[in-house]
Structures are given as C-alpha cells and as structure tokens.
Amino acid sequence: MEVKVPVMKMNDGNTIPQFGFGVYCIEDHDECVKYVLEALKNGYRHIDTAQIYKNEQAVGEAIKKSGIPREEIYITTKVWIDNFGIDETKKSVEDSLKKLDLEYIDLVLLHYNLKDYTSAWKSLETLKEEGKIKSIGISNFEIKDIMKILDICKYKPVVNQIECNPYISQDKLRSFCHENDILVEAWGPLGHGNQKLINNSLIDKLSNKYNKTTVQIILRWHIQKNNIVFPKSIDEKHIKENIDIFDFNISEDDMKLIDNLNKNKSIYPLPSFTKKFVFPIIFKIQ
Ligand code: NAD
Asked: What's this model's pTM, rounded to 2 decimal places?
C-alpha cells in the first residue's frame, strides 16, 4: 500500500519521512518482526528503534523479509548512555549495524543528555564522515545541553527527539530547536497510550467533526505542528488507522483549541532532577 507521507529536509541536506513506526517495548523478537512487517505492508517507511529496546535484530530481519529496497526505508537507532565516549560510541554503533544487518544507518541519536555526551557526539561525527551513519541527532536534550553541543560540534544535530503530545507541547524547547534549524521528533505522541488524552472531550468533539478517530486527530495535530512522529502499536487495526491521517486538515482555530490542552505534564510525573536519574533506570527494566 502506498501512502503519501511528507518528507522533511534536515540541516545536513538529507530528508526524513515525517511519519513512521516506533518499536519501544516490543521486545519479543517474533512479535517485533511481525509488527514491523505489518507497518511496512501498510506504507510505513520509517522505523524508530534504539539499542536499549533490544529489538534492532528483529527490525533488521523485518526489513530483509519485506523485500522493500533498503534505500526506501528510513532507520533510526539510538546510543544508550552507558556507551557514551569516543571508543564506546563507535563500538556501540558498529554493534547496532551488525544487529540491524545494514551497511549504514540513516539516523543515530544520543538517547539522553547524561554522562559524557560531548565525546559521544564527536564519535558520531566521525562515524558520519566514514559513511556508517547518514545523519546524527540527539534525544531528550534540554536547551542548555543543545547549546553545549552547538559549541563543540562540527555538524549540528539534525533532530532532537523529545516527549511531546497535546498535554506536554514543549513550546519553548520546540521553538529553540526550530530557531537553530533542528527538527523536532515527538516521542510518546499519544502519551504512551494515555487514555485521558485519547478520550479527552475536546479531541472527541473534533473526532466527530472531522470524521476521524481521536488518535488520528492527535497525530494530525503533530503533523501540522511540524513534529516528526512514529506512534507505536501492536494492533493491526491501529497500525492501519494511525497512518491514515494524510487526507484531511485541522483548521487553525481547532489547532489552537488543541494547543490550549497543554499542561506541560510529562507521562512520567517526576521532578526533572529525579527524572534524569530515575527515567533511565525505568527504561532499562521495562
Ligand atoms: P505512543 O505515544 O506512540 O503510544 C503507543 C500506545 O498508544 C500503544 O501502545 C497503544 O496502547 C496506544 N495506541 C496506538 N495506536 C492507537 C490507536 N489507533 N487507538 C488507540 N490506542 C492506540 O507511545 P510510545 O511507544 O512511548 O512512543 C512512540 C515511539 O517513540 C516509541 O515506540 C519509540 O520509538 C519512541 N520513544 C522514544 C523515547 C526517547 O527517550 N527517545 C521514549 C519513548 C518513546
């Protein structure tokens, strides 16, 4: 099935599909192969994985099984914080390449703004020059961390992947990224399946108005905010539904109404200092 997903131009000249499939928490190998294949069958051409999701091998297997030419699929992975450092990051990316069984990775991100992320960034720059990675970016970086990277970098990050949905729209951080020509990727675009968000009364009203599901309204809001999104699902009906958002537009007034839902509230309701240390542990044990 062919779907016209918009592509966005990044500051290094490469392009990225604005919509894709996230595979966080799909750790079972066969399940992951199955749902990535299902996504590819339904027109998804962008997969977002990470070393810490423990499913790079399954993603690579699904790409091979799909028969779709490699260059038509956009693959992102992320380096986990334990592997930050010049040599450690190089080894980590080489390991990801082996697991994915690919010659190159489209986009590699530093997963968190922790530990020695400047050395890790330098290492990504070398891997980009060697052709092992096409583009390099960051994830969960705050303004002060981005400034640190901008200070030392030869190549700017192309994206910052951050938590973002109508309940936490991150306007200040998003504006800073856009002013610096860094695209924003919204992780947890549905609040990790947050039922209060998915069943919000305004979103529900707009769902009736536009004759789309509430999830489609939320995903369309992201697209019109210029966010790159990759909702996760292990439900074949939802996989089809989530990509079916390119045949309608939310009006400017309705976009503003959704903007007003912002509470700047993370789905992980911890003070940011605690979150910095606890969140990586939550990630590791999930
Ligand atoms: P999400 O916001 O995409 O929500 C996924 C959940 O929403 C599903 O498990 C399901 O419960 C529900 N859902 C999906 N489609 C639905 C539909 N059509 N109808 C009803 N319910 C539906 O959550 P996520 O997986 O946390 O985020 C998406 C991706 O972002 C991840 O898979 C991963 O690739 C990335 N991510 C990155 C980070 C990071 O630190 N960089 C953190 C979390 C997630």
From this structure: 0.95
